[in-house]
């Protein structure tokens, strides 16, 4: 049993609640919300050797994490390094793991130029950093408001929307060799038209493109607790940073979901269950 300190807000849960994934992830009301969380072990079950009461952990429990207490199998929980803030820790097993899976899928290396569509978002802002840790360059699409933010993450910002293909084509610099798509809206088609091979495209959202072109679609679901633990340690050591857009107390969960639904912002929105 874990006493949750912070849990992340995710746009996918809005889609599930509205029935967009009814065949894959049906919603049965009333039901919980929130997947990725950080907190203290409050009780341990019989035979659990790895954790003790009071240990700090991060974990993943689909549509159950936004609660004062959660019950988790030991396989869904890994240690939280003390140096990592509760807010950043709460996002490790969700957007952190998703960014990790997407980056692993395209296997960036020195000399690569990777486009990240939606680079300022929860997944995109972490993927932007992980790609550069592997020696590749990043072109990140965002609104004009987030151009400076992306430069601060080491990426070359590119305005999304009308004329994106032409802007990508006219861009001065090495050709684009891979795409991580967190947005949809034709980004996969643009990458293919720029000559990127389907095996070096990973989309989180474009189901049609996966069917049509056989592009990849690795996400949170393909990661392991060992990878969550590694990511938590990397974030704690400062290898990458989880940008936080806003922290909300539990009483403001409704406003938090309204803000997430705008699909604009910088990094993660986090729900705080208790002070510390
Ligand atoms: N299957 C999985 O395991 C999994 C896990 C996590 C996420 N996902 C999915 O991946 C997607 C991204 O998640 P997220 O948490 O990163 O989303 P998010 O944080 O809500 O993304 C918001 C960002 O998207 C940017 N954006 C909005 N419209 C855009 C456009 N047309 N082009 C480029 N950027 C645009 C915004 O930039 P501006 O503010 O500059 O407009 C903002 O920074 C979601 O659809 C989510 O459901 C799947």
Write the layout of secondary structure elements.
Blueprint: E1 2-8, H1 11-17, E2 36-41, E3 56-60, E4 69-70, E5 77-79, H2 86-90, H3 92-106, E6 113-117, H4 122-133, E7 137-142, H5 147-152, E8 156-159, H6 164-170, E9 178-181, H7 187-193, E10 201-203, H8 207-213, H9 225-237, E11 244-249, H10 253-261, E12 268-272
Parallel strand pairs: 6-7, 6-9, 7-8, 9-10, 11-12
Antiparallel strand pairs: 1-2, 1-4, 1-12, 2-3, 3-5
Helix pairs in contact: 3-4, 3-9
Bound molecules: NADP nicotinamide-adenine-dinucleotide phosphate.
Key features?
276 residues, oxidoreductase activity, NAD(P)-bd_dom_sf, binds NADP nicotinamide-adenine-dinucleotide phosphate, single chain, Quinone Oxidoreductase, Chain A, domain 1, GroES-like_sf, NADPH:quinone reductase-like Zn-dependent oxidoreductase, five-stranded parallel beta sheet, Rossmann fold, 12 strands, ADH-like_N, alpha/beta, globular, seven-stranded mixed beta sheet
Give me the strand/helix succession.
Answer: EHEEEEHHEHEHEHEHEHHEHE
User: Ligands in the structure?
Assistant: NADP nicotinamide-adenine-dinucleotide phosphate
Q: How many helices?
A: 10
Structural class: alpha/beta
Instruction: Give the rounded overall mean pLDDT.
Output: 97
Strand content: 15-25%
Beta strand count:
12
Question: How much helix, percentage-wise, in residues?
Answer: 25-40%
């Amino acid at each position: 049993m874990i006493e949750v300190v912070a849990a992340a807000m995710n746009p996918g849960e809005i889609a599930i609640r509205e029935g967009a994934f009814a065949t894959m992830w049906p919603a049965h009301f009333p039901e919980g919300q929130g997947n990725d969380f950080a907190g203290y072990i409050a009780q341990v079950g019989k035979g659990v050797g790895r954790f003790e009461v009071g240990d700090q952990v991060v974990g993943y429990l689909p549509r159950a994490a936004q609660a004062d207490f959660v019950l988790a199998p030991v396989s869904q929980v890994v240690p939280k390094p003390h140096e990592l803030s509760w807010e950043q820790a709460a996002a490790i097993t969700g957007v952190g793991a998703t960014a990790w899976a997407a980056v692993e899928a395209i296997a960036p290396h020195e000399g690569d130029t990777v486009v990240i569509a939606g680079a300022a978002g929860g997944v995109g802002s972490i993927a932007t950093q992980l790609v550069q840790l592997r020696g590749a360059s990043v072109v990140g699409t965002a609104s004009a408001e987030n151009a400076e933010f992306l430069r601060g993450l080491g990426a070359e910002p590119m305005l999304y929307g009308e004329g994106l293909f032409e802007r990508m084509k006219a861009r001065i610099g090495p050709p684009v060799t891979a795409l991580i798509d967190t947005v949809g809206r034709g980004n996969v088609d643009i990458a293919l038209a720029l000559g990127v091979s389907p095996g070096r495209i990973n989309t989180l959202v474009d189901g049609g493109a996966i069917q049509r072109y056989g592009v990849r679609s690795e996400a949170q679901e393909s990661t392991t607790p060992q990878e969550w633990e590694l990511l938590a340690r990397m974030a704690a050591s400062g290898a990458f940073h989880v940008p936080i857009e806003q922290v909300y107390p539990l009483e403001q969960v409704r406003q938090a979901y309204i803000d997430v639904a705008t699909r604009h912002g910088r990094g993660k929105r986090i729900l705080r269950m208790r002070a510390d």
